[in-house]
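> run fold 4-carboxymuconolactone decarboxylase
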Amino acid sequence: MPASTRYTNGLAALERIDGEAGRKVIESLQAIAPDLARYVIEFPFGDIYQRPGLDLPQRELATVAALAALGHCQPQLAVHIHGALNVGCTPEQVVEVIIQMAVYAGFPAALNAMATAKTVFTERGLLPGSPGDS
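> ok
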Protein backbone atom coordinates (compact mmCIF):
# COMPACT_ATOMS: atom_id res chain seq x y z
CA MET A 1 0.00 0.00 0.00
CA PRO A 2 1.47 3.40 -0.99
CA ALA A 3 2.35 5.80 1.81
CA SER A 4 -0.26 8.44 2.46
CA THR A 5 0.52 12.15 2.27
CA ARG A 6 0.09 12.29 6.06
CA TYR A 7 2.69 9.57 6.48
CA THR A 8 5.13 11.07 3.97
CA ASN A 9 4.81 14.58 5.43
CA GLY A 10 4.97 13.20 8.94
CA LEU A 11 8.11 11.20 8.28
CA ALA A 12 9.80 14.26 6.75
CA ALA A 13 8.81 16.39 9.76
CA LEU A 14 9.96 13.72 12.22
CA GLU A 15 13.31 13.52 10.46
CA ARG A 16 13.75 17.30 10.42
CA ILE A 17 12.77 17.76 14.06
CA ASP A 18 14.01 14.67 15.87
CA GLY A 19 16.50 13.12 13.45
CA GLU A 20 18.14 9.97 14.77
CA ALA A 21 16.23 10.06 18.07
CA GLY A 22 12.92 10.02 16.18
CA ARG A 23 14.09 7.17 13.97
CA LYS A 24 15.05 5.17 17.07
CA VAL A 25 11.58 5.65 18.58
CA ILE A 26 9.89 4.47 15.39
CA GLU A 27 12.29 1.53 14.99
CA SER A 28 11.72 0.47 18.60
CA LEU A 29 8.00 0.17 17.89
CA GLN A 30 8.20 -1.77 14.61
CA ALA A 31 8.53 -5.26 16.12
CA ILE A 32 5.84 -4.86 18.76
CA ALA A 33 3.43 -2.17 17.55
CA PRO A 34 3.97 -1.04 13.96
CA ASP A 35 0.53 0.58 13.93
CA LEU A 36 1.55 2.79 16.86
CA ALA A 37 4.70 3.76 14.96
CA ARG A 38 2.54 4.76 11.99
CA TYR A 39 0.14 6.72 14.24
CA VAL A 40 3.07 8.62 15.76
CA ILE A 41 4.23 9.60 12.29
CA GLU A 42 0.81 10.42 10.83
CA PHE A 43 -1.02 12.24 13.61
CA PRO A 44 1.43 14.48 15.47
CA PHE A 45 3.96 14.94 12.68
CA GLY A 46 1.76 14.47 9.60
CA ASP A 47 -1.24 16.45 10.87
CA ILE A 48 -0.52 18.66 13.88
CA TYR A 49 3.01 19.80 13.03
CA GLN A 50 1.78 20.72 9.52
CA ARG A 51 -0.84 23.19 10.77
CA PRO A 52 -0.35 26.92 10.28
CA GLY A 53 -0.24 29.26 13.25
CA LEU A 54 2.92 28.08 15.03
CA ASP A 55 6.35 27.53 13.58
CA LEU A 56 8.47 24.51 14.45
CA PRO A 57 10.45 26.21 17.25
CA GLN A 58 7.19 27.34 18.90
CA ARG A 59 5.70 23.85 18.57
CA GLU A 60 8.79 22.24 20.07
CA LEU A 61 8.85 24.69 23.01
CA ALA A 62 5.17 23.91 23.63
CA THR A 63 5.98 20.20 23.52
CA VAL A 64 8.90 20.63 25.93
CA ALA A 65 6.59 22.54 28.29
CA ALA A 66 3.90 19.84 28.16
CA LEU A 67 6.33 16.96 28.70
CA ALA A 68 8.07 18.85 31.52
CA ALA A 69 4.71 19.54 33.17
CA LEU A 70 3.74 15.88 33.00
CA GLY A 71 6.84 15.13 35.03
CA HIS A 72 7.19 11.46 34.07
CA CYS A 73 8.20 11.53 30.42
CA GLN A 74 11.97 12.01 30.57
CA PRO A 75 12.79 9.87 27.49
CA GLN A 76 10.25 11.75 25.37
CA LEU A 77 11.33 15.07 26.89
CA ALA A 78 14.95 14.38 25.92
CA VAL A 79 13.90 13.63 22.33
CA HIS A 80 11.95 16.90 22.14
CA ILE A 81 14.68 18.99 23.76
CA HIS A 82 16.95 17.68 21.01
CA GLY A 83 14.16 18.50 18.56
CA ALA A 84 13.82 22.05 19.89
CA LEU A 85 17.55 22.59 19.46
CA ASN A 86 17.44 21.00 15.99
CA VAL A 87 14.83 23.51 14.77
CA GLY A 88 16.56 26.61 16.13
CA CYS A 89 15.57 27.00 19.77
CA THR A 90 18.36 28.05 22.07
CA PRO A 91 19.34 26.30 25.28
CA GLU A 92 18.28 29.48 27.09
CA GLN A 93 14.76 29.22 25.65
CA VAL A 94 14.49 25.59 26.73
CA VAL A 95 15.66 26.49 30.24
CA GLU A 96 13.16 29.37 30.47
CA VAL A 97 10.26 27.16 29.40
CA ILE A 98 11.21 24.61 32.04
CA ILE A 99 11.52 27.30 34.72
CA GLN A 100 8.04 28.54 33.73
CA MET A 101 6.71 25.04 34.36
CA ALA A 102 7.77 25.28 38.03
CA VAL A 103 4.87 27.71 38.46
CA TYR A 104 2.23 25.49 36.85
CA ALA A 105 3.52 21.94 37.28
CA GLY A 106 5.54 22.29 40.47
CA PHE A 107 9.18 22.24 41.38
CA PRO A 108 9.64 18.44 41.22
CA ALA A 109 8.49 18.34 37.58
CA ALA A 110 10.67 21.35 36.71
CA LEU A 111 13.70 19.89 38.49
CA ASN A 112 13.30 16.56 36.69
CA ALA A 113 12.93 18.36 33.36
CA MET A 114 15.99 20.51 34.05
CA ALA A 115 18.04 17.39 34.79
CA THR A 116 16.94 15.99 31.42
CA ALA A 117 17.85 19.28 29.71
CA LYS A 118 21.28 19.23 31.36
CA THR A 119 21.88 15.71 30.04
CA VAL A 120 20.88 16.75 26.51
CA PHE A 121 22.97 19.92 26.64
CA THR A 122 25.97 17.93 27.90
CA GLU A 123 25.57 15.34 25.11
CA ARG A 124 25.55 18.16 22.58
CA GLY A 125 28.51 20.00 24.10
CA LEU A 126 26.38 23.01 25.08
CA LEU A 127 27.55 23.27 28.70
CA PRO A 128 30.98 24.57 29.70
CA GLY A 129 33.28 21.60 30.21
CA SER A 130 31.01 19.17 28.33
CA PRO A 131 32.28 17.00 25.45
CA GLY A 132 32.53 19.10 22.31
CA ASP A 133 32.92 22.36 24.25
CA SER A 134 35.79 24.41 22.93
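The first helix runs from residue 5 to 30.
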